Structures are given as C-alpha cells and as structure tokens.
Amino acid sequence: MVEQDHDCEALAQKRRATKQLPYHFVESGLPNVYLVGIRYFACPRCRKQSAEIPAVNQLLTALARILVEKETTLTGEELRFLRKRLSKKALEMAEVLAVEPEHYSRLETGKLQISAASDKIVRAYYALQSNDPMLQKSAVLKQALETRRKPHGTANIAASLAKGSQWKTGENAA
After folding, report:
1. What are the mean pLDDT values of the chain's consecutive 10-residue runs (174 residues total)?
2. Please, what's the largest Cα pairwise distance for the chain?
3. pTM for this one?
C-alpha cells in the first residue's frame, strides 16, 4: 500500500533537543554529531526532520576544530568534512597529499585508512588554510604534527547551544 502525500509542514511537531533526546545533525556530513538546545520540527507520519540551527558557521568551525585536535586518526568522512570546509576539490587535496585522485577517493570513502603522515599533513593544512585563529596557534600546529595518533575511532560529538547563540562542543555522547 502506497502512503498518500501529506503536508509535513502542517503535521510537524515542534521539539527542543535535549541531552536525553539530542538532534542528530546528519546534515553536517558527519555521522556522529548531536546537537542540544536547538529547536527542530519532526513529522510524525514520515519522520522527516528540519532544524533551526543558529550560528551554523560557528558550529561547523567548532566541529572542524574538534577533528583537527582529536586523538585518533581521521576517518574518510572527517577527511571529506575538512576538505569541504576549505572549499577544496578532491583533486586539490590529492595534490596536497601527493597521492593519485583515485587513492584520495578511497581515503574519503573509507576503503583505505589514512596514513599517519597524511593525517598530520591534513590537520596542519587545515589549520593553516582555515583562517581559524584558534587552530593557527603554534601549539596546535605543533600538536598536530607531533602527536602519535591512536588507530581509527569515532566518538559521538556533542554540541550544545548556549546563551547568545554560542556553541559549546565536546567529544562525548550527548
């Protein structure tokens, strides 16, 4: 039986994301980002959701900062997220890493794991190219280049909306 069309906007229920029921921010391009404190709308019939996310650029910058500073090696999805934040094409990032475009594509899709050397290059490159003053500090760059990363691992990333549309982030589950 085919479900009839419906008006999601008319049926949508207004909700507020909480620590107990955070909003899964799949639109970020990362599978493990959860937001708290935002208002969103959910259609009970088809389960589509839409969110009102204030200061989205600040949020994406904070997420990128977490990725550059995290203890484990970057995943393919994280590599893609950082590349897109820099508005770079995959071909350009392949050139930065001195790999063939096909090799870089396999890194982003997760078919290959990023090497320790490439991981360091991506972090340092992002820090220098992002115009994020927090990442351009020499201590952060030094950490990005000197830290020996643990093998792949992904923890949930929680971001909470504080007063004044400021985002607080952490690498713990919401």
Report:
1. 66 85 92 91 82 90 91 94 97 96 97 93 92 79 70 75 77 44
2. 61
3. 0.80
Q: Which residue has the tokens 């204030």?
A: 54
Q: Which of 156, 171, 154, 153 is nearest to 23 (CA)?
A: 156
| Cα four-point dihedral sign 59, 65, 68, 70 | negative
> CB neighbours (10 Å) of residue 60?
21
- Residue spans of the domains in the chain: they are 1-54, 57-146
**Secondary structure, 3-state, the chain:** CCCCCCCHHHHCEEEECCCCCCEECHHHCCCCEEEECCEEEECCCCCCEEEECCCHHHHHHHHHHHHHHCCECCCHHHHHHHHHHCCCCHHHHHHHHCCCHHHHHHHHHCCCCCCHHHHHHHHHHHHHHCCCCCCCCHHHHHHHHHCCCECCCCCCEEEEEEHHHEEEEECCCC
CB 172 within 8 Å of CB 156:
yes
Query: What CATH number matches the domain at 57-146, 1.10.10, 1.10.260, 3.30.1490, 1.10.1760?
Result: 1.10.260
